[in-house]
Write a structure and sequence with these properties.
Helix content is 66%, strand content 4%. The protein is built from five helices and two strands. It has 95 residues and is mainly α. The protein has a domain of 61 residues: Recoverin, domain 1 (Orthogonal Bundle), CATH 1.10.238.10. The protein is globular. The longest helix is centred in the N-terminal third of the chain and has 25 residues. The N and C termini lie far apart (57 Å).
């Protein structure tokens, strides 16, 4: 019985980990963040953002707004929160 339980636990944990990896890979915000993160350190600096931007001046202007903790780099969480603010909220449903 113990081997069956252990095997079931290993299978369940493996499947959950696999699902999590696929969910992260499918996230377009993470994909864009990873593309901009040139040195692959998990943070986007102003220089990386300007290098990847079509309009470096616009990137320089928006960077401080996105850098919520004011540490000079953007985490994926800060990047995602900033991207969410750009999207317009849906119109309220008509009653």
């Amino acid at each position: 019985m113990k081997k069956t339980t252990t095997l079931a636990t290993v299978v369940a944990v493996t499947l959950m980990g696999s699902a999590l990896c696929h969910a992260q890979a499918a996230d377009p915000k993470k994909k864009q963040f990873d593309k901009i993160d040139a040195d692959k350190n998990g943070a986007v600096t102003l220089e990386e953002m300007k290098a990847a931007a079509k309009d470096p001046a616009k990137a320089e202007k928006s960077f401080p707004r996105l850098d919520a903790d004011k540490n000079g780099s953007l985490s994926l969480e800060e990047w995602s929160a900033g991207s969410a603010k750009k999207q317009k909220p849906a119109a309220p449903a008509a009653e």
